[in-house]
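REVIEWER CHECKLIST
Item 1: Sequence provided? yes
Item 2: Single chain? yes
Item 3: Sequence as submitted:
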Amino acid sequence: MAQVHGEGLPPVPLVPGPLGLCGVAEQSMGHRLEELERRRQAALHAGSEAAVERQHSRGKMTARERIDYLLDAGSFQELDMLARSRAEGASEDKRSYTDGVVTGFGTVEGKRICIFSQDFTVNGGTLGEVSGEKIHKVIDLAISLGVPLVGINDGGGARVQEGVVALHYYGGIFRRNVAASGVVPQISVIMGSCAGGAVYSPAITDFVFMVQGTSQMFITGPDVVKTVTGEDVTLEELGGALTHATKSGVSCFVAPDEKACLDQVRQLLGYLPPNNVSPVPVVATDDDPERSVPELADLVPVSSQQPHDMKNVVRAVLDGGEFFEYHALWALNLLCGFGRIGGRVVGMVANQPQVLAGVLDIDATEKGARFVRTCDCFNIPVITFVDVPGFMPGTDQEHGGIARRGAKLLYAYCEATVPKIQLIVRRAYGAAYVIMGSKSLGADLAYAWPGAELAVIGPESAVDLLYSSELAGAPPERRRELVDAYKEANANPYLAAERGYIDDVIDPASTRRVLHQALEMLASKRQDAPPRKHGNIPL
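Item 4: Structure as written out by the authors:
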């Protein structure tokens, strides 16, 4: 009697039937389920035990462990689990199920997301035709469903054996990242070394997370750098988490280990709507939105020459003092991040006088522009706290393109159609005041505290310019008198209030109540832009 063999299963006899010999077609459902389970187990354990052990020894989880940790228990539905490489000449051991990436969908605290997680234990997590197709499909699914996409990156880049085919599928990923931009939130989690083309997909997405010690991103590796430039540089120095978090601004968030990183991803998802047409998340809060904040009057020094920590001001206003900071290690002279007022998510932008006196420079304006545009994409109101002495002077800034690159922030504020509220906490000087979300750039509401100073330049500089002859040889007391007189006459919020550039001058203690009422009123704001293909931001 003839027999047919299933891989890894006992031979199945072919027996006569009404239509002739039959075998697999006549197997019982039990046999078929056994075959399905065998294949599923092969996919679930596609990486060898040795490869999994190497992953663990480096302090890294496997692709599936990461998904299980991030998603709600039992919510993951895998897609294309049984997909295998079809590259010509690929050996059987290179045709593992999943082809080096696990894709699917699930929930995080009940909110639906799509996810892919590259599997370094299978073909080094490299991208080939089949793994590329899987990522294409899950991005397309996220767009069609209107849900966030989380991509966990831990792979060796394009699969060399598949050559231009792998490069083609990278291009397809980039195109889909761009198509999804501003439609659904895209979050990239770097949990290994990403090189070359593998860096560009995360760079296009909205948020990049990295892990200290195990995450790297670079276009060309240390060996190439050494060959071409002669520089000796380590992986961490070239493209480690802290390098990208403090110098390049590529990484938005850094965590000490993978679990802490995924905890941050979960936290971020709580602030984001699922897509560009969904309303901003609102949650119940026990923190009274009408709560008075008397401590604000003491947090900001009266003298504009004294620094203070703007984080204390921001936290005092937000629900429960919770502030989820964006780019916490880069461009520290500008604060950006998410919080809630009355349970409603808001994006906070604020000058930080504790660093560089809060001036605006190239990095700060690019950081702010990116954040404002991200908030605008996903209907998150923007609140701007202003305490800015101006722009950073110097040839480095001018030659580095502060005119062009600083214009990104004003462009972002002008373009944003979400509710925009400005509060002048203390200093608001020159063009920096205008660019920090002023009424003239389209702020819906603008407020100031009584001690706010609005002027073209600081009072001290103005006096030195206007009274240079009189001050020559005059005692210091005379300069102080002139500075005080200038502040009284020119650098106060009431002149702006008289002209309507500020809607109200408020008691600092009432700040939270005023902002909450403003947000409630602006919740129904609708603003349609005139038809055009797109604007031309000064990139």
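Item 5: Key structural point noted by reviewer: DSSP finds 21 helices and 21 strands in the chain.
Item 6: Recommendation: ____
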